[in-house]
Design goal:
This protein is an alpha+beta fold. 30% of the residues lie in helices and 29% in strands. The chain is built from 6 helices and 9 strands; from the N terminus they run ββαααβββαααββββ. Strand 6 and strand 7 form a beta hairpin. Helix 4 packs across helix 6. The chain is globular.
Length: 237
């Protein structure tokens, strides 16, 4: 294994049995652009002019996506960047990719299992970030209902989780709706630390198929100072 990759492994989610999750932990300081050719991963032209940080994150994310596709016996492992910068998944598959400091994650499934999937990973917010961002991410009512429901996560963990859950939702639905949405377009209605699950509900219409009141179930995992959230629309599950 390249010294760039600390671990590269499949992670099981008890909530979503028909998806493959792949996590790549990496050390950015060991990244070299030659890894693209060494692993046979295409480096898109716009990325060749990007920072080393951006190239490292893109490589680790695409490698996670490739290994998730391989676990599903997909014969096409390339996930090129489209004109809209969205990952272009092989026919018959859906997926999502995310990365943060030192971690790149991917979720992939057969298209007949889920209509939409999204994944996000975030570094847990600092106290200063919580002070600056909380009001922009969650409403006072939403925050009160979740914190009064018995959730025993710390405030930084909880606000980061809620931010990440809304990002995962957006990443799942944007390819379907092509609609930009703010954080107020959805609200968390339940967070259960013991089961590592959450529920999120649309507060406005995103499309004819995704109207206000539509609910989604999600799963999360904390890894040291990082959280990963996953959402899958179970219409086909």
């Amino acid at each position: 294994m390249s010294p760039f990759l600390i671990t590269s492994e499949r992670v099981n989610s008890p909530r979503f049995q028909s998806v493959v999750l792949w996590f790549n932990a990496f050390e950015r300081q060991y990244f070299d652009p030659s890894l693209f050719s060494d692993f046979g991963i295409d480096c898109p032209a716009p990325l060749s002019r990007a920072t080393t940080k951006r190239q490292a994150e893109y490589f680790a994310g695409r490698l996670a996506a490739r290994r998730a596709l391989q676990a599903l016996a997909c014969h096409t492992h390339e996930v090129p960047m489209g004109e809209d910068r969205l990952p272009q998944w092989p026919s018959g598959y859906r997926g999502s990719i995310s990365h943060t400091q030192g971690l790149a994650v991917a979720v992939v499934c057969h298209h007949h299992h889920y209509q939409a999937v999204g994944i996000d990973t975030e570094t847990v917010f600092t106290a200063d970030q919580c002070t600056k961002l909380t009001k922009a991410i969650v409403s006072a009512v939403e925050w009160h209902e979740i914190t009064q429901s018995g959730c025993d996560l710390s405030s930084p963990q909880l606000i980061t989780l809620m931010f990440s859950a809304k990002e995962a939702l957006y990443k799942a639905l944007y390819p379907q709706t092509l609609q930009f949405q703010g954080f107020g377009a959805a609200k968390l209605t339940k967070v259960s630390a013991p089961s590592a699950q959450f529920q999120i509900e649309l507060t406005c219409d995103w499309s004819d198929a995704y109207r206000a009141g539509t609910q989604f179930n999600g799963w999360f995992q904390f890894l040291a100072n990082t959280v990963v959230t996953v959402i899958a629309d179970g219409s086909f599950a």
